[in-house]
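Dear H.,

Thanks for agreeing to be a second pair of eyes. The structure we're designing against is below in token form, covering all 339 positions.
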């Protein structure tokens, strides 16, 4: 039986693998700048689990899911523009959303100094994904801010002391009226206790403040911060940039961390990273505090995990399913039952 999943982490542009009939590729645009994080591994774990779920269909076609993870900011690695069906995932990352202004966030020590040479090619890739109706992109946190800058819909503003500093932990977002009418997010709203407020895992150092009230055609604000149950904040937190013909978001990102798993899985991930000397004790302790918050906030867990699914995991799963189905259909087979 063919192994359903493999991870490739190129160290140079020359090492980025060419497409192959043996692999269904998913590309991660890693924005972490080689800094310690839990998000990237959480995304790897999600794609691995989905690939395992689709193992019978993959085995029948003699292929594996290949997750190609590219270090965009530190190693300046980017894939070619998609020529057909493609699935891209954008991670979170540290520092300012404009590399020309980058300063390390106060939660960590030190500063980031980076070239901005990757920004133009990345924005050109966003253009290519937007124009290709068979290409999908789902992003979190830093990638959300980059999409906002690319599209011109919102500007990053550092959360200063007046705003309460960084927003870290479990906070609430509120769905927009457009989201409540959206073919995808109306389904999420139907499962929320009040039909519009959703708990999310936050680690937000920069707010994305819309540049104008009216968004460009095709770009839909999905959620904002919710300082209280009776108010919508000024910071945009979820946005759709392109939609599939079936009503599912095709290019979509959020300013929180739906990739972070439940408390048990996150605790295991952090323990492994510490044991493997991938992270410092100080970093581990700071993230372990989030585990405690997740464990103590179990009353909101069903809604939080459902919201994380609709804003990320379900989209990744559906996207990967589309890639596999497309590959099998080109070979003259249907795999609906296997998937």
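And this is the sequence the design step returned. I haven't edited it by hand at all.
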């Amino acid at each position: 039986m063919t192994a359903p999943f493999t991870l490739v982490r190129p160290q140079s542009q020359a090492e980025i693998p060419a497409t192959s009939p043996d692999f269904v590729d998913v590309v991660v645009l890693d924005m972490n700048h080689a800094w310690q994080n839990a998000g990237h591994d959480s995304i790897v774990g999600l794609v691995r689990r989905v690939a395992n779920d689709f193992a019978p269909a993959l085995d029948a076609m003699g292929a594996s899911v290949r997750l190609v993870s590219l270090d965009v900011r530190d190693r300046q690695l980017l894939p070619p523009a998609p020529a057909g069906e493609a699935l891209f995932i954008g991670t979170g990352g540290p520092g300012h959303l404009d590399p020309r202004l980058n300063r390390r966030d106060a939660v960590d020590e030190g500063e980031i100094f980076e070239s901005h040479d990757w920004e133009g090619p990345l924005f050109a890739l966003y253009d290519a994904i937007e124009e290709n109706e068979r290409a999908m992109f789902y992003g979190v946190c830093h990638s959300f801010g980059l999409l906002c800058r690319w599209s011109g819909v919102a500007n990053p503003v550092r959360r200063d002391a007046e705003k309460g500093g960084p927003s870290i932990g479990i906070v609430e977002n509120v769905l927009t009226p457009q989201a409540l009418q959206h073919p995808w997010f109306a389904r999420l709203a139907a499962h929320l206790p009040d039909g519009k407020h959703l708990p999310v895992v936050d680690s937000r150092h920069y707010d994305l403040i819309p540049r104008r009230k009216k968004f460009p055609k095709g770009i839909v604000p999905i959620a904002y911060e919710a300082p209280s149950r009776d108010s919508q904040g000024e910071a945009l937190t979820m946005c759709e940039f392109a939609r599939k013909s079936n009503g599912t978001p095709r290019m979509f990102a959020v300013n929180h961390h739906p990739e972070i798993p439940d408390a048990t899985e996150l605790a295991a991930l952090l323990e492994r990273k510490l044991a493997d000397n991938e992270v410092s004790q100080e970093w581990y302790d700071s993230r372990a505090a989030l585990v405690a918050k997740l464990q103590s906030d179990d009353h909101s867990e069903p809604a939080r995990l459902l919201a994380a699914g609709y804003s990320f995991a379900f989209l990744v799963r559906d996207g990967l399913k589309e890639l596999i189905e497309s590959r099998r259909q080109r070979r003259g087979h249907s795999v609906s039952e296997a998937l």
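Two observations from my side: The chain has one domain: 5-330. Residues 89 and 124 are 16 Å apart (CA to CA).

Warmly,
E.
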